[in-house]
């Protein structure tokens, strides 16, 4: 962090603004970019006036041509490539991994120049893939979505990567899984460079109750992703769609073209569990996620995952995870 942007202990604002340059890849993820930049916008001024009082940002590019996001919405760069040291951070917003050349060679050269000038680089969504391909993630750890973890390992087997956290700040590099975690990472920068009040203002307007931290866990990947049998996957996807337990095993088997006995045999072979036990696990994983991310009463969570009362839910949860729902929620709270 540059000293002119540090906060004093009382949280007093410094005169200089937090300056962020955004590099958008071809087919970038619009939501990740929008949440990151809007967090800066709302933190920069009061009462949603959009003034660039405490922060400033530019979308920078090798040309002023429109850049098309993965959803088809286009964004125009607001600045050519300038001296990267004008910015406190350069944020690379990635998108679809199927795009062969997400950025051009001029962009790669600009990012390497930023690295040479000690400007911190952040990869948002699959932006860490772009930084890694440019040779800019050596000796740094990348944080990617669990959806992209396997592909990152295949493309960059010598680099350190994790998919358990929402985002990561590792010295001169930052990376995040994308989606709503882009707002969490932006909120961290706002808190460090501007003030907690500015962070609170931004999150309140965005209707985000609380910013998550670098220790927060990514929502777990679906259980079905662990298995390669198409029938098992299809059955478990259906289980997640009927997480209240209302899907009978017989009907579940019929939906994937099997008898109940055939489905049970395949589940035991492929997962080591019966379909009923797998269904219970899916429901408990959903309950575990709700406990960690909300303050909903136990009875409400119990009903959501198909239990008639909180005591029955508590017994099943403890049998599954070795602790009661209340104990799990308290442990998550202490960790934060």
UniProtKB/TrEMBL annotation:
Pfam families: DJ-1_PfpI, HTH_18
Keyword Transcription: yes
Domain HTH araC/xylS-type: 233-331
Gene3D superfamilies reported for this sequence: 3.40.50.880, Homeodomain-like
Keyword Iron found: no
SUPFAM superfamilies, per the entry: Class I glutamine amidotransferase-like, Homeodomain-like
Keywords: DNA-binding, Transcription, Transcription regulation
PANTHER family for the chain: ARAC-FAMILY TRANSCRIPTIONAL REGULATOR, HTH-TYPE TRANSCRIPTIONAL REGULATOR RV1931C
Name by which UniProt lists this protein: GlxA family transcriptional regulator
Species annotation: Rhizobium croatiense
Organismal lineage: Bacteria, Pseudomonadati, Pseudomonadota, Alphaproteobacteria, Hyphomicrobiales
